[in-house]
Design brief:
The protein is mainly α and 195 residues long. Helices cover 63% and strands 4% of the residues.
Length: 195
């Protein structure tokens, strides 16, 4: 009986929860705005890369269709152009990947840092024994109880901690303002004071 009571007490003291940390960051209000900005930049980069790839494919087709009719010098020029475009394409593609990684980091790192601090505070506040990140591809989680998923709560707290946009200052006017009037007297209470 004592052993059963001790193991129950230990079970009550141990709280294991799961969180999809990446989802919490990306689905927060700020995360959604950052993701939209990232996706817009990614689409523009993708369009540029596809355009360059199409140019290479067009030159390759030109070389294939003109294999019998083009002179050797013209074929060599076309092949040099294809090689040059291919090299440029590879550089642009690599640069775009690096740029997108840097942009993603710039956009999401501040949110992730704040989310980490919030998660640590939640763990202290609610005495979690263990927090498992579902977004980590290296974990071997087979099943978890959805009741132990704190991702929605983390998203709410991230949104609540988001910096508020600064109010824009009132536009300056060239006409002088009249002096401020004295404030009105404070209203008298309508409920009688307690004896």
């Amino acid at each position: 009986m004592l052993l059963a009571g001790a193991s129950m007490a230990r079970a009550q003291l141990s709280t294991v929860v799961v969180v999809d940390f990446e989802r919490a960051v990306v689905e927060s209000g700020e995360g959604k705005k950052s993701s939209d900005k990232f996706n817009a930049t990614a689409q523009s980069r993708q369009a540029e890369i596809e355009k360059r790839q199409k140019e290479i494919e067009d030159q390759q087709r030109k070389l294939q269709t003109g294999a019998r009719t083009l002179s050797d010098a013209a074929k060599a020029d076309l092949q040099r152009d294809i090689d040059r475009r291919t090299t440029e394409f590879q550089r642009v593609n690599e640069d775009a990947q690096k740029e997108m990684q840097v942009l993603r980091d710039e956009l999401l790192r501040p949110i992730a840092e704040r989310a980490t601090a919030i998660l640590n505070a939640m763990a202290d506040e609610q005495a979690f024994t263990l927090v498992i990140d579902l977004s980590n591809p290296d974990n071997n989680i087979v099943w978890f109880n959805p009741k132990n998923d704190i991702t929605p709560e983390l998203i709410k707290r991230i949104d609540a901690s988001a910096p508020k946009p600064a109010a824009s200052p009132a536009p300056a006017t060239s006409t002088p303002k009249p002096p401020a009037a004295a404030p009105p007297p404070a209203p008298k209470p309508t409920t009688p004071p307690k004896p």
